[in-house]
Design a protein that fits this description.
Elements: H1 3-16, H2 21-33, H3 39-44, H4 57-62, H5 67-80, H6 96-102, H7 111-120, H8 125-140, H9 150-153, E1 160-162, E2 168-170, E3 172-174, E4 187-189, E5 218-221, E6 231-234, H10 235-254, H11 267-270, H12 274-282, H13 289-300, H14 313-318, H15 326-347, H16 359-362, H17 371-381
Parallel strand pairs: 3-4
Antiparallel strand pairs: 1-2, 1-5, 5-6
């Protein structure tokens, strides 16, 4: 997903969930910040690089793909962008190495989605924003894994857009970094094929380009993880579910819903706006930001400032208590989410994200930047 959904649509969902304009802005800012908080950015703030929620292309190019490098990549991408659907998924006649990668395949309504939303309960608005990013991406990025792997993330070049009348339109892929996708000519960017199993070009949905990020796109393709059998992806339907699930999740975070359960969507709240939302989701455009922004302003009558990654940088730099700033609370929530997901992967018997310690049970025994999490989780575990 892109800023159109993570920022503007998340703002709309927060408003419909009952948050104020001000709180909704904090939530959607953090939801979008997940796509911006790189180690390079954190270094510019003299902050902990362990709070990184994404990696830039330049960082990925410089990242080693040895065991430790791959674990670092997996901790970031599986925790925030490709949340595993089932860490105990069964796949017959496969090696343990293959099963470990297969079990990192992203998908909605898994146990970790519930864990992610519940982790944000009672925490900061920044934690809520991170949870909404993670939840939304399970819909857009389903069937791809947040670890470099050819045998899972590869696809054939046979992509066909399914048009409204049911006909198929062949999509053409090219590798042209920096170039925009061309809807009219059906030309889209993607990563080039690389035969190395662990090459960074085989991370996530690179072979599918930005197709998963466009809400209007309905397409058929042949994924490696399913033996190159045809799979149909209906983004408008999936994005609608993501939007409704975010509303439900944020009502839970506000205390208006007692429990959060998977596969529950607040369709009642969007009923008065069904046609408006459907129009936004199905409009053929590379960026729906303006449409979502207009919808948000219609809901509140207030202006929604455009996202600027540097908005709160100075606040963080000059603060004496950095943990109480917007970025400070974002970083704490990010480390908490990464720690939780990494621990779940590790305790499932899968070492692709590295080793992990449950601080709440065993106390501190890891990277010193995480020590602040000990005090925030221990009371709930005792």
């Amino acid at each position: 997903m892109q800023a159109d959904f993570h920022y503007y649509a998340t703002y709309c969902a927060a408003i419909l969930a009952g948050y104020s304009h001000k709180d909704a802005l904090d939530i959607c800012y953090s939801a979008q910040m997940v796509d911006c908080c790189t180690k390079t950015y954190l270094k510019s703030l003299s902050a902990s690089i362990h709070a990184a929620t994404t990696q830039s292309q330049a960082e990925l190019v410089d990242t080693r793909t040895d065991t430790f490098g791959l674990q670092d990549i997996t901790r970031i991408w599986a925790s925030f962008h490709f949340l595993p659907n089932d860490l105990h998924a069964r796949t017959p006649f496969a090696t343990k190495a293959y099963k470990n990668k297969y079990r990192l395949i992203c998908g909605p309504n898994g146990v970790l989605v519930k864990d992610t939303v519940e982790l944000a309960k009672g925490k900061s608005l920044q934690a809520a924003g991170i949870a909404m990013h993670v939840l939304a991406d399970t819909w857009a990025h389903m069937n791809f894994a947040g670890t470099p792997t050819l045998v899972i993330n590869n696809t054939s070049n046979d992509f066909f857009e399914v048009l409204e009348d049911g006909s198929l339109s062949k999509l053409i892929f090219r590798h042209s970094p920096g170039a925009s996708d061309n809807i009219e000519k059906n030309i889209y960017n993607s990563t080039v094929f690389n035969t190395s199993e662990n090459n960074i070009l085989n991370l996530g949905h690179g072979h599918a380009g930005h197709l998963p990020d466009y809400s209007f796109m309905r397409y058929k393709y042949l994924p490696a993880w399913d033996g190159y059998r045809e799979f149909y992806k209906d983004n408008p339907s999936d994005y609608r579910k993501a939007f409704c699930q975010m509303i439900y999740a944020m009502k839970y975070l506000r205390g208006k819903v007692e429990t959060f359960e998977t596969s529950v969507y607040d369709t009642e709240t969007i009923a008065p706006y069904e046609e408006r939302i459907s129009d936004i989701l199905t409009r053929r455009q590379l960026d729906a930001s303006l449409d979502w922004k207009e919808f948000g302003m219609e809901l509140t009558g207030k202006d929604i400032p455009d996202f600027d990654v540097s908005d709160y940088s100075e606040e963080y730099k000059i603060a004496e208590d950095k943990d109480c700033t917007r970025l400070g609370m974002f970083m704490i929530a990010a480390m908490s989410q990464k720690s939780m997901v990494t621990n779940k992967i590790y305790t499932s018997g899968n070492l692709l994200a590295g080793f992990s310690i449950n601080y709440g049970i065993k106390g501190f025994g890891g990277i010193k930047d995480y020590i602040k999490l000990v005090y925030s989780v221990r009371p709930a575990d005792e």
